[in-house]
Amino acid sequence: MTVLDPKSFLTAIFNAAVAAADPERTIRDHLPARPKGRTIVIGAGKGSAQMAAAFEKAWDGPIEGLVVTRYGYGAKCERIEIIEAAHPVPDAAGLEASRRLLAKVQGLTADDLVVALISGGGSALLPSPAEGLTLADEIAVNEALLASGAPIAAMNTIRKHVSTIKGGRLAATAWPAKVVSLVVSDIPGDNPALVASGPTVPDRGSRQDALASIAAYGMKLPASVMAHINAPAADAPSPDDERFSRNEVHLIASAGVSLEAAAVEAKRQGIEAVILSDAIEGEAREVGGVHAAIAREVATRNRPFSKPVLILSGGETTVTLRAKGKGGRNSEFLLAFAIAVNGQEDIHALAADTDGIDGSENNAGAFADGSTVSRMRAAGVDAKAMLAGNNAWTAFNAVGDLFVPGPTGTNVNDLRAVLVR
């Protein structure tokens, strides 16, 4: 097999996946018709500033608008204002952004058009506590969710029941204007109502569903939050509400499309590719162990796939915090993977978040192979102890295997690529 350097090959796979979700390409194909009245662009998410810049370039007509993205993820726009706020834990800048977005869509008419540019990360960027709750309450909810190990769908069902902007409420505020939502999905299964907790897309997740998830994952939320979720005031708008009857929702990029592009790039370089799933969820370290078992089976028995092969998967794993180390779900996945393939030659892997950031550090993920654990040991790092302490970033940093592409301008969840040579 004439593969280039494994890291270079895996980086090219990542780049192909990200390019397939490039907003300049995807937004051009989903432009709504021009309205009689005003066109107002709103948005939230880690890819929403780049979406706004792409929309400005493609739109033939007057526009105004406001989009919120993560600090450092801005893009240059002429007519749409870009503001930045904190992610993954909300801050006061996000609170002000939510207030201004709600104000931006008030007082519109049926002749006006609202274009909503929504991508992953919008949940944290749009804190807007329900009456009787505070920003501190919403921060406490977010921190509990991030540490709980709950899947993203459960998290966002809870989030929308403590908010005045999520769960379709932003679109309801814009009524009677038509709202067209252009969504970049980072959600396993691609339900647009769950991306960024659906500020413009309602769903049928109920207060009872939220309470069931809080109980199932043992979350400890403030008493004020629990009292609110237990009251009818927390109910989110129904998808049957007439305020949503004219609206449109378009999924313009997703993990599935990006994985297909990654597979095409692998085949272009002479490596067959298989896609396990674009919707894998579960505890990151456990998913890492499963991927490692598949890779070992291919390496030693040439089944269920023939080598050489690139094994791809997408979705969003979770991390149940056991300690206060540095890391993220992709680096934790990979550390468990590295431990499980220790000593196995010709297995190389990259796991990375397609938005360019894994957790709270500046890396998207990391690289691992059969020599990772021994190289960590030589650097004075115990891989198993680091995994136990949720300290995967520190482990990979010690051997120079962090993957740092920088912000990508899109977000279609995680890409896991395992090369068996």
From TrEMBL:
Pfam families linked to this entry: DUF4147, MOFRL
Residues covered by the MOFRL domain: 310-414
Annotated ranges, domain MOFRL-associated: 10-229
Key words of the record: Kinase, Transferase
Entry protein name: Glycerate kinase
Protein's UniProt keywords contain Kinase: yes
Natural source organism: Mesorhizobium erdmanii
Keyword Kinase among record annotations: yes
Superkingdom of origin organism: Bacteria
PANTHER family in the record: GLYCERATE KINASE
GO cellular component, one term: cytoplasm
GO molecular function, one term: glycerate kinase activity
Listed InterPro entries: GK-like_C_sf, GK_N_sf, MOFRL, MOFRL_assoc_dom, MOFRL_protein
